[in-house]
């Protein structure tokens, strides 16, 4: 699913995003490392923690299955836990887009100059999708969480 999201975002023009999966440092997880590695593409880095090192997740106040989304300047823009980190919802995707397109944490000198067109497009598309959903006579369109659900089926 993460690879699908990566490809989708790349097709929308969101390039140069780094995706890193951090494996648990326990022996059991280390033994499963190859399975984890095989289930993602080469574009997604799988990082194996050493048993001796300080646990990355503890350091980041995170849990298994969390998503931490950083901007170009390495600032944490979003920290999503379950259920928001399920990729069947749009929270991770939206969070990446916001981190990519909006200066949530103030300006960053690494922002790419040609980003405006792409981001304008993304917001426009999101608005169009919302408008499209509004027009559907489902009788449920006023609920925000339903929007997310319908939006996912398009």
From TrEMBL:
Record has Secreted as a keyword: yes
Top-level lineage group: Eukaryota
Region Disordered: start-end pairs: 135-154
Species annotation: Mesembrinibis cayennensis
Localization annotation: Secreted
GO cellular component, one term: extracellular region
Protein's name according to its UniProt entry: SEPP1 protein
Domain Selenoprotein P N-terminal: 1-154
Gene that specifies this protein: Selenop
Upper classification of the organism: Eukaryota, Metazoa, Chordata, Craniata, Vertebrata
Basic residues composition-biased segments: 141-154
Gene Ontology terms for molecular function: selenium binding
Keywords in alphabetical order: Glycoprotein, Secreted, Selenocysteine, Signal
GO biological process terms on file: selenium compound metabolic process
């Amino acid at each position: 699913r993460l690879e699908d999201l990566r490809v989708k975002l790349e097709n929308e023009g969101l390039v140069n995003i780094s995706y890193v999966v951090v494996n648990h440092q326990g022996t059991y997880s280390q033994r499963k490392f190859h399975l984890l590695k095989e289930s993602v593409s080469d574009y997604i880095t799988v990082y194996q923690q050493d048993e001796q090192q300080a646990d990355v997740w503890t350091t980041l106040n995170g849990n298994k299955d969390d998503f931490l989304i950083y901007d170009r300047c390495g600032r944490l823009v979003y920290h999503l836990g379950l259920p928001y980190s399920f990729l069947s919802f749009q929270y991770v995707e939206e969070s990446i887009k916001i981190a990519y397109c909006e200066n949530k944490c103030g300006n960053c000198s690494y922002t790419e100059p040609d980003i405006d067109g792409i981001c304008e497009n993304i917001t426009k598309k999101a608005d169009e999708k919302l408008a499209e959903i509004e027009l559907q006579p489902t009788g449920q369109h006023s609920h925000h969480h339903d929007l997310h659900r319908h939006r996912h089926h398009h």
